[in-house]
Amino acid sequence: MRPLSHLLLWSLGLRAAETQTTADERAALARHAQGRAPIVEIGVWHGVTTAALRRAMRNGGVLWAVDPFPPGQLGFSLQKPIAEAEVRRVRNGTIRWIRTTGLAAAAEYQREEREQVALIFIDGDHSYDGLTGDWVAWKPLVAPGGLVCLHDSRSTPGRDIEGAGSVKATNEIVLKDPDFELVEQVDSLTVVQKRTANSRQPQ
Known about the structure:
Helices cover 34% and strands 21% of the residues. It is an alpha/beta fold. Strands 3-2-1-4-5-7-6 form a seven-stranded mixed beta sheet, sandwiched between helices. Helix 3 (48-56) links the parallel strand 1 and strand 2 (62-66). Helix 2 packs parallel to helix 3 (48-56), helix 3 (48-56) packs parallel to helix 4 and helix 6 crosses helix 7 (165-174).
């Protein structure tokens, strides 16, 4: 469906907000986000997973919702109003809307010298360079024991995405990073955890 048509039908209550995540992936995200903060999401789209993360995060926590929301042919983002309304329905904590790329958002987060991140959900630029850039920029900002969740990071029985840059970068860079260990894989979602000082592998 065309974005403008979807926005109009959504505003009338005739269409739901869209997400490319599966129900099992959303359940895994909510489970891992439970009681955690701060949380960062890179790639918001219609805010379905953003709302789920906000609902699950630590009471009073902060969630950075990062997305450039590029303007379409009409001169404005057709996804942004849907995302804002969907996330506004959840009252827990504080949302920071960061309208930029994941790479630029990492620099902004670091400049503000904020608390280390407890969980990042990366679902933005799925190219090899895009995911690699987000990973390199954000991984130093993750707290020991913190989690990074990557969408479209592996194929599923019903969806072969082995050629995707996000899959290649996950296999070649993320899963080989000695500072992180694999926690779980659910459908196309991969969850890794930053090692603590006591759990680091010997060099």
